[in-house]
Amino acid sequence: MRGVEVLLQHGWAWDASCFSAWQSTVPGAFRLAAADRGYFGSPALSPARPQLVVAHSFGLHLLAPEYLDRARLVVIIGGFRSFHPEEGAASRRSQRLIARMRQRLRREPEDLLRDFYARCFYPEESPFVAPASPDLGLLGQDLEKLDTHTLDLEPLAAVERLLLLHGSRDCIVPLERATRLHRELSASSLQIIEGAGHALPFTHAPQCWEFIRQAWTA
């Protein structure tokens, strides 16, 4: 038996270690392949036709549509259609935040990444330390895309099953962003992990997998 091919895609400023705890959590019948964008080293490619796709945060925006063609289940953790709210004061604050991040990436990248991880892990302490010599060009390029990109929902709408997982205390992507995406994807289900922040693949791997297992076997 070959097993179920699973693609794990991290988000902005992470690497494949985002899913390191999953190796001991997920049963052997599922073959995990963690893609790596290459922010801190050589990029790692994804399986060509995964049956189960798990994308964290901006990782959803990094996925080419062909990765969804065979997928029976797509799991979106801490995800969003567009990073900024549609309009109003909240949208302006969000845009100013990204503008400051882009400035800090050029001037003080190590401090920016440290602060970013602290916010991702909130309300827990961040154990993650970015590897040395990050690819600032690629981080900047993707930060610009995060600032401007709106996800095309058509490829997702064609997927058999969609599961959204979100932390109730996520201060990177507010819960309302996941609720909106859930409304726009009528076939999706949304599970909220109480008390959790944005770094769910790191901090809540067993809980995430239990929701995924239930969705897979439903």
The count of helical stretches stands at 8
The level 1 CATH classification is Alpha Beta
Integer tally of domains: 1
Largest pleated sheet:
6 strands, parallel
Rg, alpha carbons: 16 Å
* Cα distance spanning the termini: 21 Å
Describe the structure.
The protein is α/β, with parallel strands linked by helices. It has one domain: Alpha/Beta hydrolase fold, catalytic domain (Rossmann fold). The chain is built from eight helices and six strands. The chain has helices at 59-62, 88-107, 109-121, 136-148, 154-157, 175-184, 200-203, 205-217, and strands at residues 4-9, 30-34, 52-56, 73-77, 161-167, 188-193. Strand 3 (52-56), helix 1 and strand 4 form a beta-alpha-beta unit. Helix 2 (88-107) packs across helix 3 (109-121) and helix 2 (88-107) packs antiparallel against helix 4 (136-148). The longest helix has 20 residues, at 88-107. The mean pLDDT is 94.
Briefly, what is this?
This protein has eight helices and six strands, in the order E-E-E-H-E-H-H-H-H-E-H-E-H-H. The chain is α/β, with parallel strands linked by helices. The protein has one domain: Rossmann fold, CATH 3.40.50.1820.
Based on the model shown, name its key terms:
218 residues, Rossmann fold, alpha/beta, globular
Write the layout of secondary structure elements.
Elements: E1 4-9, E2 30-34, E3 52-56, H1 59-62, E4 73-77, H2 88-107, H3 109-121, H4 136-148, H5 154-157, E5 161-167, H6 175-184, E6 188-193, H7 200-203, H8 205-217
Parallel strand pairs: 1-2, 1-3, 3-4, 4-5, 5-6
